[in-house]
Records
---
Amino acid sequence: MAARVQAEPFDPARELAALGEGAGAVVSFTGIVRDDGDLAALEIEHYPGMTEAALAEYGQGAAARFALTGWRIVHRHGRLQVGEPIMMVATAALHRRAAFDAADYLMDWLKSRAPFWKREIRRDGSSAWVEARAEDEASLARW
Amino acid sequence: MAARVQAEPFDPARELAALGEGAGAVVSFTGIVRDDGDLAALEIEHYPGMTEAALAEYGQGAAARFALTGWRIVHRHGRLQVGEPIMMVATAALHRRAAFDAADYLMDWLKSRAPFWKREIRRDGSSAWVEARAEDEASLARW
Amino acid sequence: MAVEVLYFAWVRERVGLPRETVETGAATMRDLLAELALRSAGHAAALGDHAALRCAIDQQLAGLDAPLVGAREVAIFPPMTGG
Amino acid sequence: MAVEVLYFAWVRERVGLPRETVETGAATMRDLLAELALRSAGHAAALGDHAALRCAIDQQLAGLDAPLVGAREVAIFPPMTGG
């Protein structure tokens, strides 16, 4: 039952420890900086104060809606290298469907409603802000 | 890219290590023995030989269908205590949707098509085989 | 032909054996189930309700009407409950 | 009233400031955007296309027609791209 925003790397495996207590199912999602050919790094900006509150609110909303026995959200900001985990969501519930759906739901909220902005930095030094994708917004509309 | 069946406990966190290499998204599902009130233990029987082949086949099928960059299935057999992980599925892909769908798909196959049978052992010593649920079969029909 | 027959879960318990070798001329799993059910009261109790059974032929899931020709190992069991 | 205005991502870059305090009588975010756009060429470039902007009032996401009355902190930014 915790949401965190941090510049430091985190260990997805460690975040999962103890989350399954009393649960029958645990689902985790980890997003990783992926080299699409010439990506040097990712820079993530966020809205301090609002971010923490929004993540906690979305987590609590998912916990109520899907009757979670536990949940966790960790999201990094700052400069991230290729291969580093960007964020993770983990959900624990009595049954499989609830854990899957809650993780999927939280990812949709995070992608389109949490105040983070990503900038891709290329190997040649150029950079560009990542544009929001219509399919992410459409995915959120499922719920 | 591995399926394992074993009597020994496993560490879900450890299974995830290195799975994200080259991926943008990793999803994991862990099933845990849950005390529903008076459960003492779970006993899992399987079909040695067929089980390993079936898990590898389902894993490879999911890898091809969802263009996975990595996957892992671990399933235990024998006697399991409350709170112990029963099995896990982990999938890695370039994008979020593929990783989520592949894990969901593999769970549907595992639940209804992998040769495992569960028996619940109660605190009073009585026991009963778990019955297959119509909703698991229906869930598989989605794909 | 000689076929190795494996039983699992409550099918195994009712039959009272984990496996047995049978000599059969059955053309399909359905025919084999009918033959096996005559072997004992336990076999009859385990194998009478076809809707409650699932099968594998040489370690591949198969329907009750799948042909048995060439099969070396068949398995009979309840619907699976893994995961 | 005095409102603290925060900018993020390319909105921040185009405006050239991460935040500023403005004195305004704007009734809604839309009115405020129109006022702010007059401040500089950078503001105009950042705030001209309302469809490309998202807002928060006192750290809660809000539509462009949300009332500003009582607001102490507003934020203007592009569509979010977390996760």
---
Amino acid sequence: MDGIHDLGGKHGFGAVIRETDEPVFHARWEARVFAVMRAASAAGVIRNADQFRHAIERIDPLAYLGHGYYGRWLGGIETLLREAGVVDVADLEAAIAARGGDPRAPAAARPDRQPAHIDYQPAAPGSRREGQASARFAPGARFAPGARVRTRATGTAGHTRLPAYARARCGTVIAVHGAWVFPDSNAHGAGENPQHLYTVEFSGRELWGDEAEPGTCVTLDLFEQYLQEVTP
Amino acid sequence: MDGIHDLGGKHGFGAVIRETDEPVFHARWEARVFAVMRAASAAGVIRNADQFRHAIERIDPLAYLGHGYYGRWLGGIETLLREAGVVDVADLEAAIAARGGDPRAPAAARPDRQPAHIDYQPAAPGSRREGQASARFAPGARFAPGARVRTRATGTAGHTRLPAYARARCGTVIAVHGAWVFPDSNAHGAGENPQHLYTVEFSGRELWGDEAEPGTCVTLDLFEQYLQEVTP
Amino acid sequence: MSDDQPQALRAEALEALLIEQGLLSAEAVDEVIATYNERVGPMNGARVVARAWVDPAFKARLLADGTAAIAEFAFEGGQTEKLVVVENTDTLHNVVVCTLCSCYPWAVLGLPPKWYKDPAYRSRVVREPRRVLAEFGVHLAEQTRVRVWDSSAEVRYMVLPQRPADSEGLDEAALAARVSRDAMIGVAVL
Amino acid sequence: MSDDQPQALRAEALEALLIEQGLLSAEAVDEVIATYNERVGPMNGARVVARAWVDPAFKARLLADGTAAIAEFAFEGGQTEKLVVVENTDTLHNVVVCTLCSCYPWAVLGLPPKWYKDPAYRSRVVREPRRVLAEFGVHLAEQTRVRVWDSSAEVRYMVLPQRPADSEGLDEAALAARVSRDAMIGVAVL
């Protein structure tokens, strides 16, 4: 998804602001959101991290920039709870009003009428991540360390972990991590589609052109489906 | 600038909302902003449209999405008026307070301490646009209608009119418009650098991959410096 | 954007400071409002379209060099240093956008509507023009190609819509009354 | 974000609805607060770093397979299914980010600081790492290469900082006390 979340390389966000003696949670509501996230996972509403990340990507872009990290989580979780029918928006608004709040205050959540993942079933219990995926994934890795690869040029409306700044770019494989669940399909309940994951290093110059800082590079962990061989 | 303004192809902004019987100005303050823009141009604070567009690109990203068109203009104009020393922020805040407003309400303006364009002088009075630029631009156009061209792959921290969605893409020249002032340098007072302008057509598939709608294309007006020849 | 009070006060304050400095007259706002409500607006483009429908020689000139062809109307309004007029046909539909800001041919269409300047239209129409057009009520045949003109430089675009089938016998003024702003942007058909 | 009251009330309302449905216990919030304040935090990563400094065999294991090497510590906290530890040297400086969301190795570093999750750091550190590091007070020699690890999948990264020159003779616990969270992200040197 070419969404507001895809921030790498973007300009205009100013200086990095650090807090002195920053607490783990700035307010109790942030910890509440964390607890609600865990409950939604336990209830099967958040099926996997990919689906949750995509729900956060789908929230209102203004809220994404303005509501902070736990505000983004809140939007993503509310989206999934409403899509799953676990929470009804009228009940939620009534509960907000009962606490003296404005139930019509701009919310971050953006539930789809027909969520893409409603029929999602994990392929096998507990088979989400590396160990299990590797075991079920027979073919060998297509690329070895040192291989030159080029990333896919185009984006997608769905979830993906290839950031816009690294599209249509050439890099070098520096590590091979075995087979992992593919977020682009798993987020949508369209299968775990396990495939090899590579750490690919890109020179600053390849990513940013003449304006790159000298002697800098960026690595990304990229799935085999994002990559093409570069013929020398 | 890889800023929030570069919206082409981005996801997550929802449906297009139309108003019935929409007025030209929704409130008097919008027309005020328009009048202030004209005054800033007449006073030489807004030197050219490229500098003004870049000032708008530089405003706070949240304001860019949240304050509407004239709110964006307001941010851009305030930025330039403060950078030029015509308006002092303390005076502005006092004038807001005198009107019963909160002088510390989040503002869109983001003046630089050392604006890049402070020494800007137009190369020649009135020489900003097509006619004059063409006259001073001797060499012929590098590309003719029908030529296949590839756009630059990387962005820039400064102003540019090559949107991110059309970088590193191949297209076909369908029109040649003579020489125009180059916004990428003109916005920063770094010269008018007139050069040929081309309308380039890109297939939907080239821009958006497999997800493109069939039978669609996009044209962009691109400056010669953005383009490379595609060798067949 | 539910509450634009801070922007309203800031604009008023800025205006006051410029008036104090003699850089702006107190009447300028009313002049702006009058200009873009009364004289500069889509009624100008509508006259151009109607003339192209009734006068084949003018239409040929308009499509060959829009800037020169509209010079005879002597429109004011700015933002239209070079005008290119693109013609809708049975096999090609044109639609105009400015993804990077909100470029628009003021002299012929006036100031753009809010939706033209909002993120939704700017982001979507280049990527999914058929879906956006359908939301506007324009359902194109599959075989009709769609060309989206993203106004990324100083060239400004206006769409020449197809003349409605039921407009036989109307004179130029009556035809102009049939031409909508949206049709000249390319998000409506007549 | 000056006023987070709407988010606070919405979170409270959501929590209440889940408690009503028996999907969440009223004590869960306090448990979350206790976990990430008391047991899961950068003190865990600091122990790993200190051990690597004093035990060359552990350091070799840690750099070869971070996940296996930290298993002996039995940290809780999640978000660290595969850990890769990258070593700073005189000629290479490593720094970690997640531009697409805010991935972070919770088990060894706890929950990330606000700046790590904010747009400014996420957007800038991949494009201008030297400038960002300088703002953090880390001024690198021109010849020191910088490698930015953008955590785009489930691999989590932790930086093994260089041992401070003045730490001779300190024991493992004293060394751990010298290791800062920021040094393990790569935005500080010790």
